[in-house]
């Protein structure tokens, strides 16, 4: 038996982040949704997503599996109910299927194909669904605290140099192979987890809850507030607060980044700064791809940025901005509130030439010893040709 995390029908609500990945691959807290289910279940976890993204994810062999809506963020009671489902049983709420266990053989997964196989369906209420990309940074504090014991259970932390100053030592976990000297860490405000291969340079100030992924680098004098999660191989500097970087992205220099979620392979030029609060103190409106409207997103909302996007030096990012994937943002003044995917510049919007975009992405990947795969290129071609019409 395996767990199969499936994208909900409304996965477009999480664009631009889910234009280039399955919902299960979103980092929230200290783990991706897929990693969290692996910890909870101790089972192999597979992903079922849109057809154009599926080549990135191996499919499970035919058989009986537990299918779980990847956008559902369960509490302990719901998680227990999901894992205890017997074949033919299902859970649902007003938004649709939460989970079920069944055997479809070689048939495609769909609600129509499911129905004949389910003999007992229970309706639940009060279920939390991840519906909007900005919920990732809004809920990051809660999930970082939830994930910390999952990550540390049964493990022994590495010793750290006496040159570092730590408050709340019991809430700090450092893996082997971390380079860290003369850093100040306040884990009394929330747990701090530093993954292997990370480099914390001199003078860095860290405040929990905080997750630092493998091979991520914090530059000298970086100020990182909770609740922040920096995925693998990121570079971070300046002032960062309540930010989730999915991985392989850079905000290496001075400037402020706050209340934001950043995709993979992004780069922010030196001095890039975002606003996260309106001058009026009013509620922030942010663009929602699925409805094609601006919707209210709370009083603090900075930036949502899709994969492979970049900003020029000294870019000033408007409150509640959305930058699509594969955008090259430069120009004078505040950015527009919406920068579409494959944008070149920001004033008098021009489309990025596709082949040039691929070459530029490949160049950035090379800097971190990665290469743009054929599968990734095909996915970007699909987005360029079909999702921007």
From TrEMBL:
Which superkingdom?
Bacteria
Checking Pfam families in the record gives:
NTP_transf_4 (PF13562)
Q: Which Gene3D superfamilies match?
A: Hexapeptide repeat proteins (2.160.10.10)
InterPro entries, alphabetized: Bifunctiontional_GlmU_bac-type (IPR023917), GlmU-like (IPR050065), Trimer_LpxA-like_sf (IPR011004)
Q: Does the keyword Acyltransferase apply?
A: yes
UniProt keyword annotation of Transferase present = yes
The record's keywords, sorted A to Z, are: Acyltransferase, Transferase
Molecular function in Gene Ontology: acyltransferase activity; nucleotidyltransferase activity
Please report the name of this protein according to its UniProt entry: Glucose-1-phosphate thymidylyltransferase
């Amino acid at each position: 038996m395996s767990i199969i995390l499936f994208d909900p029908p409304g996965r477009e609500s999480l664009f631009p982040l889910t234009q280039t990945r399955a919902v299960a691959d979103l980092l929230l807290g200290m783990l991706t949704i897929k990693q969290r289910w692996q910890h909870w279940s101790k089972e192999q976890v597979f992903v079922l997503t849109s057809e154009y993204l599926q080549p990135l994810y191996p499919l499970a062999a035919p058989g009986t599996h537990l299918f779980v809506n990847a956008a559902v963020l369960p509490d302990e009671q719901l998680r227990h109910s999901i894992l205890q489902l017997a074949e033919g049983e299902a859970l649902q709420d007003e938004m649709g299927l939460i989970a079920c266990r069944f055997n479809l053989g070689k048939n495609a997964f769909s609600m129509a194909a499911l129905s004949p196989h389910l003999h007992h369906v229970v309706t639940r209420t009060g279920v939390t669904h991840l519906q909007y990309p900005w919920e990732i940074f809004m809920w990051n504090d809660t999930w970082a605290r939830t994930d910390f014991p999952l990550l540390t259970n049964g493990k022994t932390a590495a010793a750290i140099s006496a040159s570092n100053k730590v408050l709340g030592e019991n809430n700090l976990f450092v893996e082997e192979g971390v380079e860290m000297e003369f850093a100040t860490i306040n884990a009394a405000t929330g747990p701090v987890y530093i993954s292997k291969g990370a480099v914390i340079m001199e003078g860095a100030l860290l405040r929990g809850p905080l997750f630092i992924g493998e091979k991520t680098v914090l530059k000298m004098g970086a100020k990182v507030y909770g609740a922040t999660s920096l995925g693998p191989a990121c570079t971070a500097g300046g002032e960062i607060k309540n930010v989730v970087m999915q991985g392989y992205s850079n905000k290496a220099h001075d400037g402020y980044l706050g209340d934001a979620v950043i995709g993979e392979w992004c780069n922010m030029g030196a001095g890039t700064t975002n606003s996260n609060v309106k001058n009026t103190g009013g509620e922030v409106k942010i663009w929602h791809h699925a409805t094609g409207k601006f919707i209210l997103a709370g009083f603090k909302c900075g930036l949502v940025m899709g994969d492979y996007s970049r900003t020029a030096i000294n870019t000033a990012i408007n409150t509640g901005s959305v930058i699509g994937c594969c955008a090259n943002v430069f120009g004078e003044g505040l950015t527009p509130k919406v920068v579409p995917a494959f944008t070149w510049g920001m004033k008098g919007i021009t489309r990025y030439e596709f082949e040039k975009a691929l070459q530029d992405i490949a160049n950035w990947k090379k800097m971190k010893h990665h290469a743009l795969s054929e599968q990734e290129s095909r996915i970007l071609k699909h987005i360029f040709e079909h999702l921007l019409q």
